[in-house]
Each structure stands twice: as structure tokens, then as C-alpha cells.
Write a structure and sequence with these properties.
By secondary structure, this protein is α/β, with parallel strands linked by helices. It has a single domain (6-222), classed as Rossmann fold, CATH 3.40.50.300. The chain contains 9 helices and 8 strands. The protein has helices at 17-28, 35-48, 56-64, 93-103, 106-119, 132-136, 150-162, 170-186, 208-219; strands spanning 6-11, 31-34, 68-70, 79-81, 84-85, 125-129, 142-147, 199-202. The strands form 2 sheets. It has a 5-stranded parallel β-sheet with strand order 2-6-1-7-8. The protein has a 3-stranded antiparallel β-sheet with strand order 3-4-5, covered by helices on one side. A hairpin with a 2-residue loop joins β4 (79-81) and β5 (84-85). α2 crosses α4. The chain is globular and about 45 Å long. 2'-deoxycytidine-5'-monophosphate (DC) is lined by residues 13, 35-36, 39-40, 99-100, 103, 129-132, 180, 184.
């Protein structure tokens, strides 16, 4: 057995993946990697530079100019795009609305997966995303696939967003999530799918502590 452990957490949008992944990483002293933040930062760059999502030359050129870095001072996501801290901006609606299309592009995925695999080469990590257990780390010893009732997910996300966006409605959030689920599960490149050996965690009625306890039991045999 290698001396570092990879925990892959996949699942639908706003399912609580990052809450669980952060808590787990903190408890185990592993590095936490939010792979969605990488796709979001690429989407932000593409938006700013008005990259045509059908122009493969433009995309390839843009990818060469994108440098992403995580700064894990704590177990929150701090990501820089070409040395600029973009952790807040990548959570805003313009990015949320385009990120599914950007993450469906083959060249984008290829580059992100390469960088993600590099991060897991020598250190114990918890990484959350959509294809971590299937494409990024198919040999990860622990794979968790998270799911929850769609309305419960929309309500959770709505609560987070409404402080900064008082005009937003639950319907809009629900629609955005449904759209993202559709795009994530039907895209050609690495669609969101449960790895055969992933454990399903439906957290509709579970507290964060209960989820952490569940996950810790799965990881314990490997640490
Ligand atoms: O987890 P999130 O909502 O921050 O992810 C943002 C988008 O990136 C979402 O549309 C799915 C996509 N994504 C992906 O395709 N593969 C990953 N490993 C992580 C995220």
C-alpha cells in the first residue's frame, strides 16, 4: 500500500460535497482540493477574455495562459488565477451560469485532470468534484458519491446566496441546479456518474457531523 491516501468525493451540485470534504481533510490532516473551483476559475478567465467556447484554437491558447494555484492556509478554498485571488468571484452567478459549458470542453478537462493528478502524486488528499473517482483517481481507495433531494439542495444553496443576492428566488436557484445536473450528467466528456466502487451517501436527512462520522469510518482502514 502506498503511504498516501486519496479520498474521492463526487456528486451533484450543492450536495454538501465541499462541507464534508473540508471537514474530513481537517480531521485527517489531509490536503483539501476543490476541483470545481478550478473549472470555475477557467470559466471566469474565459468570460473575461470573451473566449468563444466553440473555437478550439482560442481555447488551447487561453489554457496556456491560465495559471491556477491553491493556497490552503485553512481548510477553505483559496484559489488564484494568474496570481489574482478569485475565490469570491468564481461563486457569483455569471460564472455559475457558464461553468457547466466550460467544464464540458475536452481540452479544459484534459488540462485540469493532469493538474489534479499531479496534486495527488505524493500527498494525502481529499478531492471533491464530478469525475474524481472515475477519471482523476480511478484507483482511490475511498470513493464517496453524494446525493440529496433536489429541493433540499436548492433550499440550502438559496440560503447561502440570498445574503449577497436578495433579489434571487428559490425557483431560479432550483432551475440553475437542475440545468447543471442535466449538463453534468449528459455531457460527452467524463459525465457525472457513480464509480462502480463508490459508496453512496444520501445526505437529505443527515447533519454534517453524521456525514463526517460516516466518511471517517470508510477512511479509517487506510490511515
Ligand atoms: O462543484 P462546483 O459546483 O463548484 O463545480 C462547478 C462546475 O464544474 C460544475 O458545473 C461541474 C464542473 N466540475 C466538473 O465537471 N468536474 C469536476 N471534477 C468538478 C466540477
Amino acid at each position: 500500500m502506498s503511504n498516501h491516501v486519496i479520498v474521492a468525493i463526487d456528486g451533484y451540485s450543492s450536495c454538501g460535497k465541499s462541507t464534508l470534504a473540508k471537514a474530513l481533510a481537517k480531521k485527517l490532516h489531509f490536503i483539501y482540493v476543490d476541483s470545481g473551483a478550478m473549472y470555475r476559475a477557467v470559466a471566469l478567465y474565459f468570460l473575461r477574455k470573451k473566449i468563444d467556447l466553440h473555437n478550439h484554437e482560442q481555447i488551447a491558447e487561453a489554457l496556456k495562459n491560465i495559471h491556477l494555484n491553491f493556497h490552503s492556509r485553512d481548510y477553505e478554498t483559496h484559489i488564484t488565477l494568474n496570481d489574482e485571488e478569485v475565490s469570491d468571484e468564481i461563486r457569483q452567478m455569471p460564472v455559475s451560469e457558464t461553468v457547466s459549458s466550460v467544464s464540458a470542453i475536452r481540452e479544459v478537462r484534459k488540462e485540469m485532470v493532469k493538474q489534479q493528478q499531479r496534486m495527488g502524486r505524493t500527498k494525502s488528499i481529499v478531492m471533491d468534484g464530478r469525475d474524481i473517482g472515475t477519471a482523476v483517481f480511478p484507483d482511490a481507495p475511498v470513493k464517496i458519491f453524494m446525493t440529496a433531494d433536489p429541493l433540499v439542495r436548492a433550499e440550502r444553496r438559496f440560503k447561502e446566496l440570498k445574503h449577497k443576492h436578495p433579489e434571487i428566488t428559490l425557483e431560479e436557484v432550483f432551475e440553475n441546479l437542475a440545468h447543471r445536473d442535466y449538463q453534468d450528467t449528459t455531457r460527452t466528456e467524463s459525465p457525472l456518474v457513480r464509480a462502480k466502487d463508490a459508496i453512496v451517501l444520501d445526505n437529505t436527512n443527515l447533519t454534517p457531523d453524521q456525514q463526517l462520522e460516516f466518511a471517517l469510518k470508510k477512511v479509517e482502514p487506510f490511515v
